[in-house]
Each structure stands twice: as structure tokens, then as C-alpha cells.
Write a structure and sequence with these properties.
The complex is a heterodimer of chains A (about 240) and B (about 290). Chain A contains 10 helices and 10 strands. Chain A has helices at about 45-50, 75-80, 95-105, 110-120, 125, 140-150, 170-185, 195-200, 220-225, 225-235, and strands at about 5-15, 15-25, 30-35, 60-65, 65, 80-85, 155-160, 190-195, 205-210, 215-220. Chain B is built from 11 helices and 2 strands, in the order H-H-H-H-E-E-H-H-H-H-H-H-H. Classes of the chains: A alpha/beta (about 240), B mainly alpha (about 290). The structure holds adenosine-5'-triphosphate (ATP) and magnesium ion. Adenosine-5'-triphosphate (ATP) binds near residues 14, 39, 43 and 86 of chain A.
């Protein structure tokens, strides 16, 4: 059976430099996998390659039985992949509401209403802040908005790039809960995290990246006991 | 200064100001969203004047229809320019700027070749004037103000109430993220360049109606518009509106007090000051 998402032997370059070297990974429908690794390991590059803003120089990406690595980003998001980028990247000079509409850019107007109520179900605080300029939100609220904007695209797969970055512990807990709720509604998730403790709590499977290559992969329940993972990424 | 003289100068300044506003709005949209310093903007203004003259005076098309056709033609020219001449070199900003200079000269001397170098007058469509408290404004100038205000409102609604406007704002603020949510950069750039050209053409058509049309009419308004958007903040829409009105008033007051040459110089001196001391302008984001 075809997996929901599959990367086969993907290589990505910036100019001459290889940021990702021949990696393969797979995600089953409605599951969560995590990519962990040090700064510069290539985690964000992999997400950008899946969402189409960066093109691989080698390899193939398949999503729901269709090859997508040659498609432009707008076709990829239309097929149900929403990319929530590193450092939030909300549109700072737009209202919260317009940011949400931007996420739903390719959706039909008739779908936006139910998408919005779903977003408010997960991100209650945004409801009171619809008219506020997004750049004036707190860091935590901006992260919520970035995820909410992604959800407005009506995805079956979300790519979350370090959603816990720079957030207070309580907010990290909240974000963790929301990710898990979204997943329970049937959305598959690829989670990139520095916070491996959080990532291992959410994900069923983990891939460990070092300088563009996958050096270790396995179920999180097993990897959590791996000596190298413990020392390097879990800090125990 | 006598009060009626003051009011008259004020009215003239606002009127000319609105034509600058239209011009500067086009320039600031193109700069803000495409990061293009568009040196063919003045020639789009000039083409606005010429097409109106050609349609209305030569082919006797109804004036309102002639204006509509004119701005559509120039918007289409803008679209074609972006699509075939700017897009292939989009990442090389210096080449893009040189291309706009080349295009500007192409259009200017093209117009000169086709229509000749001499001034062309567009016959008066709405003769008459309005007098109020010793102040007069011709119907044509009043129409320029009304059209200016209507376009500013229309543009605001377009940017804030339509999907294409949402894409324009998103592409301006973060092009990469905008593409990941399905907003095409190509489409947005075509739209912005066409819209910017349309605004310049409207300004040129109205100015051509008030004064005359000739192949070099666009140069000074374009250079002034660059100063206007520096004053207002490059890329800022409120800045283009405020800057256009300020420069219109400066034009009007300084030329009636000191003559047009001093008035012209003054605009650029103010621009020096802003570039050195307040480079983000009145409304620039920082
Ligand atoms: N736009 C770019 N141009 C050139 N090199 C880049 C670019 N973006 C990333 N790189 C390089 O590619 C490599 C992988 O970067 P990437 O951002 O994917 O790492 P990451 O694992 O997400 O790191 P971090 O944890 O710091 O976010 C790095 O060596 C980086 O310097
Ligand atoms: Mg990263």
C-alpha cells in the first residue's frame, strides 16, 4: 500500500551546497512524525521542499498516490498540504482576520465559514483579536495565528516548523495540546522541533537528521531509550 | 497674503495634488510590492494623455468612453511589459531598472515619432467654472479632483476588500509564505504593474485635458512622484496620498510666491532632507 506521504531519496541544494542529501521518509495517514536535529541539519529545508517553495535536485515526493515534487506551491497547498513556517511569519501589517483569509486563499467562500469555526474551536483567543494588527500580537498568539492560518487551508497534512520556538512553558503546553487535537481530527503532521521532549510526546515516529542525512529513525517509544538520542537530543 | 488669494492657491494645490496622488500611488504600489524603481511611469502618464487625445480629438469617441478605453489600453501595456520584459529578469533588480529606463525612452520617442513633438490640446469637454467666495475652479479641474478622490477610495476598497487585494498585501509582506498559501507572485506582479500604469494614465489623461499633451509631459511628474513617495515613505499608500497633497500644495504656494522654478527646486530640496534625515518618510514602516 502507498503511504500517505513519501519522500524518496530527496536531495536539495542551495547553490552548490547540499542541504539535504538523499533522504527518504514516509508518513501514514493521520499520523505524526517528527524531524529532529541540530541547527542547520536541513529540517526546514525538507519542509520547504514538501510544500514546493524549494525544488529538490534529485528524488521524488509522493502524496496520496500522486507525484508532487514538480508542482508549484499553489498546487501543493490546494492538494491539502499546509506549511506553517519557522518563526511564525504571519503577515504583520494585516489584521488577524485577514491573515486567516490569506490561509484560506484557495478555499471556496462557502467553506470558509466552517473552517473559521473550526479554527476558533482550537484557537479561542484569536476570536477576540480578529481586528487586531497581527504584528502586535504576543509571540504565543502569533504562533497560534500561524497554525490557525495553516488550518484555514483545510489541510490533510500540516508541516509545523518549530512551533514551540521562543514560547513560555505554559504556552508550549497549550500548543502541544492543540497539535494533538488537530491530529485527532484526522490531520497528519510533520513536526520539526528543537524541543525533542515535546516532539517525542506527540509523534509516533522520529527521524534524526545530521548535516542533511537521516542518521537514525524509528518509533519514538523505542528511540526514547536510545543512548545517543538521550544524550544529544533529550538532554538526559 | 490676502484671504481669497490664499484660498485660491489652496484649491489649486489640492487639485494638482490629487493628480500627483494618482501618479505616486502607482509608483509606490509598484515599488512596495515588486521592488521595482519604475522609470517608465512618466511615459505611462504621457500615454494616458496621448491615447485620450487620439481617441477623443481624432476619432471623436465620447469623452468618458475615451478615458475608460485609454486607461484600459495603458493597463494592458503595463501588463504586457511586466509579463514579457520584466518577469524574465525579475531577480536582477539593476537590470529591471535599466529595462524601465529603456522602455521609458522607447515610449517617449515612439510617441514623438507617431504623433510628433508638438503640444496637442484636448478640447474642453466641460466648459465653465464654479465661483465661490471669490475663488474659482474650472469644471475640468473639479472633475480631476472628483476622479482623484473616487480612485483613491476605489483603490482602498480593492486592496482591502477583494481577494486580489489580499494577495497584493500578502505578497508585499512575505512573498514566500504568500506562495505557500496559493497566492501567485506572477499574477500579483502583473496585476500591480497594470494597476500602477492605469493610475499613471488616469493622471496623465486628466492633466492632458487641463493643460496639453506632448511626448515629454511625463518626465517631471514622474521625478516629482519619486520625491513624493520618499516624503510619504516608499511603498506606503497613506504616504503617497499625504505626500502627493503636500507636494501639490508646495507647488501651488511656492510657484505663486516665488515662481515655478523655485517651486520645482524646493520639492527636491525637501526630498534631500527626507533622504538624509527621515529616509522612511512620513508613513514608512520600519
Ligand atoms: N536560503 C538559503 N540559502 C543558502 N543556504 C541556505 C538557505 N537556507 C538554508 N541554507 C543552508 O542549508 C542548511 C540547512 O538549513 P535548514 O534551515 O534547513 O536547517 P534547519 O535544520 O532547519 O536548522 P535550524 O534548526 O537552525 O532551523 C544550512 O547549512 C543552511 O545554512
Ligand atoms: Mg529550521
Amino acid at each position: 500500500m502507498n503511504p500517505f506521504l513519501e519522500l524518496m531519496n530527496i536531495t536539495v541544494k542551495y547553490g552548490m551546497a547540499e542541504a539535504v542529501r538523499g533522504i527518504s521518509l514516509a508518513l501514514e495517514e493521520q499520523k505524526i512524525i517528527t524531524l529532529i536535529g541540530a541547527n542547520g541539519a536541513g529540517k526546514s529545508t525538507i519542509l520547504k521542499t514538501i510544500s514546493g517553495v524549494k525544488k529538490p535536485t534529485m528524488g521524488e515526493i509522493w502524496f496520496r498516490g500522486e507525484r508532487i515534487d514538480k508542482l508549484p506551491p499553489e498546487k501543493i497547498v490546494a492538494r491539502g498540504i499546509a506549511h506553517v513556517p519557522e518563526r511564525r511569519r504571519i503577515f504583520p501589517y494585516m489584521s488577524v482576520y485577514d491573515n486567516l483569509k490569506a490561509g484560506a486563499y484557495l478555499r471556496k467562500d462557502s467553506e470558509i465559514g466552517s473552517d473559521l469555526s473550526n479554527v476558533f474551536h482550537h484557537f479561542g483567543i484569536l476570536k477576540q483579536r480578529l481586528g487586531q494588527m497581527a504584528g502586535t500580537l504576543s509571540g504565543g498568539e502569533q504562533q497560534m495565528l500561524a497554525m490557525a492560518r495553516g488550518l484555514m487551508a483545510g489541510p490533510s497534512l500540516m508541516l509545523l516548523d518549530e512551533p514551540s520556538l521562543g514560547l513560555a512553558p505554559l504556552v508550549v503546553m497549550e500548543v502541544t495540546n492543540i497539535i494533538s487535537e488537530i491530529n485527532k481530527q484526522g490531520v497528519g503532521i510533520i513536526l520539526v522541533e528543537q524541543n525533542a521532549v515535546l516532539a517525542f510526546r506527540l509523534a509516533q515516529k522520529a527521524y534524526v537528521l545530521e548535516t542533511g542525512s537521516i542518521v537514525l529513525e524509528g518509533n519514538t517509544t523505542e528511540l526514547i531509550n536510545d543512548q545517543r538520542v538521550k544524550e544529544k537530543y533529550l538532554g538526559i | 497674503m490676502e484671504i481669497t488669494f490664499f484660498l485660491q492657491t489652496l484649491i489649486n494645490g489640492i487639485q494638482i495634488g490629487f493628480l500627483y496622488v494618482l501618479m505616486a500611488l502607482g509608483l509606490t504600489l509598484i515599488f512596495g510590492i515588486m521592488h521595482v524603481i519604475n522609470f517608465t511611469h512618466g511615459q505611462m502618464y504621457m500615454l494616458g494623455g496621448f491615447f485620450l487625445w487620439w481617441l477623443f480629438e481624432i476619432h471623436h469617441v465620447n469623452y468618458v468612453l475615451a478615458i475608460l478605453l485609454t486607461v484600459i489600453i495603458v493597463a494592458a501595456i503595463g501588463f504586457i511589459v511586466e509579463r514579457f520584459l520584466l518577469r524574465p529578469i525579475r531577480d536582477q533588480e539593476l537590470f529591471v531598472m535599466c529595462m524601465t529606463i529603456a522602455l521609458g525612452q522607447f515610449f517617449e520617442f515612439g510617441a514623438r515619432t507617431v504623433w510628433g513633438p508638438l503640444d496637442k490640446a484636448i478640447p474642453t469637454v466641460m466648459p465653465g467654472l464654479i465661483k465661490f467666495a471669490g475663488v474659482t475652479i474650472t469644471n475640468e479641474r473639479l472633475m480631476a479632483v472628483v476622479v482623484g478622490i473616487a480612485l483613491v477610495i476605489g483603490l482602498y476598497l480593492f486592496i482591502h476588500r477583494t481577494k486580489a487585494g489580499l494577495a497584493m498585501r500578502a505578497v508585499e509582506q512575505d512573498p514566500e509564505v504568500a506562495t505557500t498559501y496559493g497566492m501567485g507572485i506572477d499574477r500579483t506582479h502583473s496585476l500591480v504593474f497594470a494597476l500602477g500604469s492605469l493610475l499613471a494614465a488616469t493622471s496623465g489623461a486628466l492633466m492632458g485635458t487641463i493643460i496639453v499633451v506632448n511626448p515629454v509631459m511625463g518626465t517631471a511628474p514622474m521625478l516629482k512622484s519619486f520625491m513624493i513617495i520618499i516624503l510619504g515613505g516608499m511603498g506606503s499608500i497613506p504616504g503617497a496620498i499625504a505626500g502627493g497633497l503636500i507636494v501639490g500644495l508646495m507647488d501651488s504656494f511656492f510657484s505663486s510666491l516665488f515662481g515655478i522654478d523655485i517651486a520645482y527646486i524646493f520639492v527636491f530640496v525637501v526630498a534631500f532632507m527626507f533622504i538624509i534625515f527621515k529616509p522612511r518618510g512620513l508613513f514608512g514602516r520600519g
